[in-house]
Known about the structure:
By secondary structure, the protein is mainly alpha-helical.
Amino acid sequence: MPHSVALMDALKRELRARRITYSRVAQHLDLSEATVKRLFAQNELSLQRIDATCALLGMEFTDLAAAAVARTSVISQMTLEQEQELVEDPKLMLVACAVLSYWTLEHIVEHYALSRAECIEMLARLDRLKMIELQPNNRFRLRISGTFRWLPDGPFQQQFRKYAQMDFFQSHFGGESELMLQVFGSLSAQSRAALLGRLKSVAHEFAEMNQQDGSLPLSEKNSMTLVLAVRPWEPRNLRALRRKAPKQAQGAGSETTVLQNASAALPTGRRSR
């Protein structure tokens, strides 16, 4: 990632963390709100304006630069061995999920049947796995990027499908803060690529909200799980209704062109949930 982009990303995170709007930034910089939004969207804020925005935040430019550098040392994916170690120990997985939600050592010990010594041991293992960076007084800093992904069909995803997927979907998704949507359609290659990009952006935004709310008391937050999935797919019972391709006619030295009309009879749908 270019240093200028990392610096702008750090600035955006600090603004969100302090709940400072672009409108306030615009007033402080003596610019229109539309101009500020464009400059931030295109990562084109000058160093002078970045410095002025830091003053609005009540922080030094050097602190912002340090935050940007620290963010670039994070991981976006674990190795197969790291994931395997994580899923093989339920207590280690528990503490990993807790720190991903910005819980402190005290929060974990208060809510789960782990001793303080056990929790510290789990934190030390997460430090060795590069998920966190242990700091004095058993504090820690996450080393997971906002674009972090579990390995496709890796140990974590296999564990989720085996033990948690059924539990997660045992809901009508009609309660407060619950939502489940199924959308079917036929998309071109260009539209499919655009859709995947937007879903990744949603996951990234979820991670940023999680970070932004990290310092709030647990009483003001709920544990949330976001599952995004989309793939070329058609329900099995609908596939059974597809027309069968006619058998090739018998004939020495001749070839018969088979009319493939299944797609016209029933378009293949995509499912997103």
